[in-house]
């Protein structure tokens, strides 16, 4: 069983309000296990028998579209991937202190060489 985190877009923004209990219920109906949400962010932690993360991501997106009536993009990451992201320190302490904010973005696909520059 694989423990995953679904970062969902279009949940509780722009008039698309979904109670976290309702979101948990939807994931339960999608045959996912040990479902829980993280605050009212639209982020869902769950366990799945599927090891095909890309297929599972598309399944969640299509089932949310059917259930909610609007498109919801899902970015699935494993718990170790999220933990590694939290540990990663690309900036030194001086840079962090002077920064207005530090943001992390999850992309659907890896960047190409030109975009990475």
What layout of secondary structure does this protein have?
Elements: E1 2-8, H1 20-29, E2 33-38, E3 43-48, H2 53-68, E4 74-78, H3 79-87, H4 93-98, H5 113-116
Antiparallel strand pairs: 1-3, 1-4, 2-3
> SS-based structural class?
alpha+beta
User: What top-tier CATH class of the largest domain fits best?
Assistant: Alpha Beta
Number of strands: 4
- Return the CATH topology of the largest domain: Alpha-Beta Plaits
CATH architecture of the largest domain: 2-Layer Sandwich
End-to-end CA span: 37 Å
Q: What global shape is seen?
A: globular
Helical element count?
5
Beta-strand level of the residues, as a percent range? Answer: 15-25%
Sheet with the most strands, sense and barrel status: 4 strands, antiparallel
Secondary-structure element pattern, one letter each: EHEEHEHHH
- Describe the oligomeric state of these chains in a short phrase: single chain
**Count of spatially separate domains:** 2
Please bin the fraction of helical residues.
25-40%
Low-confidence stretches: none
What is the CA-based Rg, rounded?
16 Å
CATH superfamily of the largest domain: SP0830-like domains
- What is the average of the pLDDT values? 91
């Amino acid at each position: 069983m694989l423990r995953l985190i679904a970062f969902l877009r279009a949940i509780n923004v722009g008039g698309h309000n979904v109670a976290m209990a309702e979101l948990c219920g939807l994931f339960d109906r999608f045959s996912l296990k040990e479902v829980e949400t993280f605050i009212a962010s639209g982020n869902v932690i769950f366990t799945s028998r599927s090891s095909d993360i890309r297929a599972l991501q598309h399944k969640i997106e299509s089932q949310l579209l059917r259930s909610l009536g609007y498109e919801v993009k899902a970015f699935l990451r494993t718990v170790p991937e999220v933990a590694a992201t939290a540990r990663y320190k690309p900036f030194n302490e001086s840079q962090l202190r002077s920064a207005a904010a530090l943001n992390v973005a999850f992309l659907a696909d890896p960047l190409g060489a030109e975009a990475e520059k």
